[in-house]
Amino acid sequence: MPIYSYTLTDGSKRYRVVYRKPDHKQQSKYGFKRKADAVAFEASVVVDKATGKFIPVERGRITIGQLGPDWLAGKKYLKISAYKPLESSWRTHVEPVWGDVRLMDLEHSAIQSWVSELASRRSPTVVLRAFGVLHGIITTAVLDKRLSADPAARVSLPKKIRRKHVYLTHEQVGALAAAGGEHTLLLLVLAYCGLRWGEAIALRPSDVDFDRGRIQVTRNAVEVGANIYVGSPKTYENRSVPVPAAILQAIQRRAEGLDDEALLFPNRWGHFLRRPGTSAKDRSWYKTALAKAGLPSMTIHDLRHTAASLAISAGANVKAVQRMLGHSSAAVTLDVYADLFDDDLDAVSDAMNAAIISANVVPSVVASLSAGNDEGPAPQ
After folding, report:
1. Which pLDDT tens digit goes with each residue over 255-278?
2. Helices (DSSP H) in 20-123: which residue ranges?
3. Dmax (CA) of the chain
4. What's the CA gap between 220 and 196, in Å, rounded?
């Protein structure tokens, strides 16, 4: 593979490598500023051809903008609530910056600079999603043998800081429900059954088993932009949620006279309720109820956390809480609510202390230690 030098119009010297691809067609790569770089490239071509890793230059001339739509199309199997944010992130953050950039021109430093700049003005969630879209396209290009390496590998990303959970007491739940007006029962269902907002607003009388005292969660109404889409629960699995008897009776009274498929908690027009906000610009019924109850600002999702807290304080084990909340595993429940199980350590200590006293272990141990101390000084 010969290496040729040539001179640019400004008088600077460059090098060109001429080589043959595996199909024996001739190819050239221009623009090397140093001969050593041209020689290194020449050597890499030899190695890549020998190991089957050779990627023709023209494979990398396609742009991110050309690959993006196909990558997004491959994600349409996702729930609409997961797909729409990806599509929006592509249009808003990825395509405007990277749409005209060829794969072969991607550089790690440029990607890192983009991530850092975006992180300076947007939340970690937005940055991680945008990077995920770009990295997903690049990863597919590597798998399709359009790139020999991943230029987005080891990019430093911002960390998402988990917001501290808010847990209400029974008294606080009662105060909030009393201030909720027409939404009192909905607030009680959220705080004591642990349903997600979309699961609660999609409930119908047919979803309640009044004999067993269970809510059958089979649907989830997700708000995406101006639309609400009804699909399966978040984990794709239906679940049975226990309902306290007092709340079950209230649901039964609400369901009287309703069609089995009517919404239990509709808005004034009989359609799905919109998720209430709590920001200063919001004037929602939920924010008003929080103020009347004398409670701090908290999201509607915090009532789900409250349900977990109240269940655990009532003696529910982690497996029962997992099933109630619809987590994919008990490990997820432990990870999300690890702080709620701290008191269990005290319970373990107290239980072991009671067993020690019952077995009369301490007096004999103390006597043994005292005998040992009499024989000589304590070890240092």
Report:
1. 999 999 999 999 999 999 999 876
2. 35-51, 64-73, 80-89, 95-98, 108-119
3. 97
4. 8
The confidence band for 105, taking pLDDT boundaries of 50, 70 and 90, is very high
- How far does Cα 80 stand from its chain's mean position? 15
89 near 129, Cβ under 8 Å?
Answer: yes
Q: What is the rounded distance in angstroms from the CA atom of residue 265 to the CA atom of residue 139?
A: 44
Residues 6+ apart with CB under 8 A from 123: none
Element (H, E) at 175: helix 170-178
Helices (H) and strands (E) in the chain, counts: 16, 8
Q: Which residue, 88, 64, 62, is CA-closest to 75?
A: 88
What tokens appear for 98 in the block? 């990277």
Task: Determine the residue type at 264.
Answer: L
The pLDDT tens digits of the residues spanning 125-184 come to 999 999 999 999 999 999 988 888 899 999 999 998 888 889 999 999 999 999 999 999
Q: In which region does residue 241 sit, left (phi positive, over 0), alpha (psi from -120 to 50) or beta (all else)?
A: beta
**Pairwise CA distance, residues 214 & 344, whole Å:** 28
- Residue that is written with structure tokens 């610009």 in the block: 281
- Both tokens assigned to 128: 């991680």
The alpha helices in 238-301, defined as continuous H runs, are 245-255, 285-293
Are the C-beta atoms of residues 157 and 122 closer than 8 Å to each other? Answer: no
Distance CA 103, CA 137 (A): 10
Label residue 363 exposed, middle or buried (CB < 10 Å: 0-12, 13-18, 19+): exposed
Q: How far apart are CA 370 and CA 150, in angstroms?
A: 67
Which of 216, 192, 195 has its CA nearest to residue 205? Answer: 216
200, containing H or E segment? helix 197-201
Residue 26: count of CB within 10 angstroms of its CB:
9
Cβ atoms of residues 13 and 1 within 8 Å: no
